[in-house]
Amino acid sequence: MSTIWTQARRAARMNPSIIREILKVTEKPGVLSMAGGLPSADTFPVDAIKAACDRVLTATPREALQYASSEGYAPLREWVAGRVASLGMKVKPEQVLITSGSQQGLDLVGKILCDAGAPVAVETPTYLGALQAFTPFEPLFASLASDEEGPRPEAIATLPHDAPGTRFAYLLPNYQNPTGRVMGAPRRVEVVEALRKANVPFVEDNPYGDLWFDEPPPAALSSLWPEGSLYLGSFSKVLTPGFRLGYVIAPPELYPKLLQAKQAADLHTPGFNQRVVHEVVKDGFLDSHVPTIRSLYKANRDAMAEALQAHLPRGCEWQLPQGGMFFWVRLPAGLDAMALLPRAVDAGIAYVPGAAFYAHQPDPRTLRLSFVTLTPDLIREGVEKLGRLLHEALEPVAEHAP
Amino acid sequence: MSTIWTQARRAARMNPSIIREILKVTEKPGVLSMAGGLPSADTFPVDAIKAACDRVLTATPREALQYASSEGYAPLREWVAGRVASLGMKVKPEQVLITSGSQQGLDLVGKILCDAGAPVAVETPTYLGALQAFTPFEPLFASLASDEEGPRPEAIATLPHDAPGTRFAYLLPNYQNPTGRVMGAPRRVEVVEALRKANVPFVEDNPYGDLWFDEPPPAALSSLWPEGSLYLGSFSKVLTPGFRLGYVIAPPELYPKLLQAKQAADLHTPGFNQRVVHEVVKDGFLDSHVPTIRSLYKANRDAMAEALQAHLPRGCEWQLPQGGMFFWVRLPAGLDAMALLPRAVDAGIAYVPGAAFYAHQPDPRTLRLSFVTLTPDLIREGVEKLGRLLHEALEPVAEHAP
């Protein structure tokens, strides 16, 4: 107990990111890490960014280096509004708020919508970073029963909708982190219909939607109920995470409050970064660039799928992800992914135990494997080691004697 | 009332930035604006930044464009720890958290230290952006009686220190925004002594400390009570605000919680921006660059001082700022700076009414004038127009007839 400082009540609820703590442990030299959620640095368009930096600092240095508007750089907001039209969304540039990564979008959403004790519905499991962003605002998480397509519509019907009613449902329909699952078109209609009936609006988080392998995902949930949705997008997975650029698309009634929260949080997102990214994307660069990411990631996905099939013991379960960055594996009964992690690191591999991604009752048998950080050869080597570890963990030690 | 969305209780307390709203009104073509708090774009070291962008993207593109640590770029944290030694502070790099501008530092401080109804002491007047950053966390502001050096020590002795005790005092000892005042060395000792006695820690915000004109300000308040202080610094006024780079220096007991708040808020500050700024500053660039800003601003300050003397009616009061960016003017009794603003804009000038900077009982006679945005010639023209407006406001209209 400090004798000088008194911390806020909410601070007691905040915890270090389990993933970041795990990443520190697993960042030993020689460890094949399938733990991180980092996009492949091979996909960063360094030359295009370098040229754009130069153009911005030559053409508009004073504007790019000065304070800028809290809403974001107008041409980039226009670009975003145009971009999401391909997802079925009809959006005006005035509805776009540029944020410092989509993680900031989650923080701002929590700030303007969460009250202590008011329910927020989340998928089972869900993105850990969202749990962390909302937690300081002390919501009561309600875990929606979910299957291989995401939350089940009947689970939504049972949400608390009396005061304090459920403030929103937080949904990741495309190649969800951590499960990699995608919500099919019929399920999207059912889910949004159930939310409408329950009068529960939703926050749609879509960092991975562009990373599809065979066919694009169905239209955005937000296209089905525009006035009942907030939509979060990001440049981190299609361009670079190092610029920290994301955006929130808000219905007109929420936009002003979100903007006030943004002003209070950091005045504005770096104008320089916004101009550079706009300079890179404005003439269709992503149309040629994103397919190169897709094909790289798809080859990696295939390598991991094959390796999992070849090396994981009977009783392990996983879905083939149709996009994104992750496999989600469920181990046979009796195994605990968290308990096994130290042995995995000793064996030279790392993953993220799935328990971190649950708001309630974690499934200790789950783990998340990224297929975008290692090369196919290293993926095969890593999964082979994982398989060996799991076989050992399942069999009596004596059987391994020669 | 929305039938879909329910906003958080704290959202009702949040308001649009009055300054940003005023800036919108005053951004008419032809208006000489002394309203903004923007540093002069003439001071941005465009060539140095351009060269640094190029070096970073040539030498370490993959690292600069990838996700990075929440604490910040290690070499920049080391540089900051070394830099503040000149302010009398003994700081380890592990105490430095890089933030997305020092505004984000205020948000994070509010998040981990403010509870609904718990007092936070502020100067009279104080920085509006801090009031905005803390307000969502629902503190009870306590306005400290202040004079031309800042808060009075005897005002601190009367702060509430029983539960819920005053969480911290928010202090700007150097060329404060909005008043331009600086706290002398003896006052610093008295203030910190009073805070220690009252067991009230403090948050020291120092965006303007480098912008002194004749002699540097006394040692930082934080040097006098390191374990009872959080210190906020910024690159916005000495390099560029467009990169949104600031930092918080925290005692070891608070650092982990601040870091968790940072992770939840935006994962990390753009690694690219941190590396570019480090590349610019690492070899002593500021030692030659900051003096050029000082001499530019000092010449502007002198021009405004002379013009105020020449044109403002008897009964106006102001101090000569020894650094920073602002004059703080108190109008003669009977005048209201907010009420006069529309006439000022019609007359082709703009300022910020001082009322926005008070947590309680605003003084309607005050206004803030920036001397760093206009050239000396335009400052003279602007102040002359202000003087004419004030003379007119003070005298019966009839006297102006030819």
Automatic annotation (TrEMBL), chains A, B:
Query: Which Pfam family would be a valid example here?
Result: Aminotran_1_2
Q: Which cofactor does it need?
A: pyridoxal 5'-phosphate
The Aminotransferase class I/classII large domain covers which part of the protein? 45-386
GO molecular-function term, one example from the UniProt record: transaminase activity
Return the InterPro entries for the record.
Answer: Aminotransferase_I/II_large, Class-I_PLP-dep_aminotransf, PyrdxlP-dep_Trfase, PyrdxlP-dep_Trfase_major, PyrdxlP-dep_Trfase_small
**Record's keyword annotation contains Transferase:** yes
Q: Which domain of life is it from?
A: Bacteria
Q: Which UniProt keywords apply?
A: Aminotransferase, Pyridoxal phosphate, Transferase
The name on file for this protein is PLP-dependent aminotransferase family protein
Q: Which organism is it from?
A: Pelomonas nitida
